[in-house]
Amino acid sequence: MWHTRLLFACLAVSLSVAQAQFFYHQALGLPSKAAYEPDSPYVGYATADAHPSVVRNAQWESELPAELSKSARFYNDPVIAANLAKESLLTRKEMAVEHREADKIPREQVYKLFKNAGWLSRR
To answer: Which N-terminal residues, if any, form the signal peptide (predicted)?
Structure first.
């Protein structure tokens, strides 16, 4: 008789321990958009938030004739432009560039380096 009680007690303890090991996943009421994503997909894209050299480069490229711009048709596609803008937005682990180290290197030094490496023709 006491064997049966002991068996039921062990069974009850094992069932209560086993139930605690199962975790049923439930959908949480999370927002569909991450907190770090801006409201507009174009925030920081060639606007006042952009680095000055990025704005200068965009201005220079916009003045090029279409035949010199190899990818004019590619970038003028609105779907591609929107997707590229989304990919370049800041996320949690990215930071905006305030001072570029590359801007501190004189262009003459870069030219001399490429020329001495043999990547440019010596004139």
So the answer is: 1-20
| Total domains in the fold of the chain | 1
Residue numbers of the domain that contains 115: 36-123
pTM of the predicted model over 0.85: no
pLDDT digits (tens, 9 = 90+) for 67-119: 777 666 777 778 887 777 765 656 666 666 677 788 888 989 988 988 899 88
Tell me the C-alpha distance between 82 and 69, whole Å: 19
Residue 108 falls within a domain, yes or no? yes
CA distance linking residue 23 with residue 38, whole number of Å: 34
Q: Is residue 15 part of a domain?
A: no
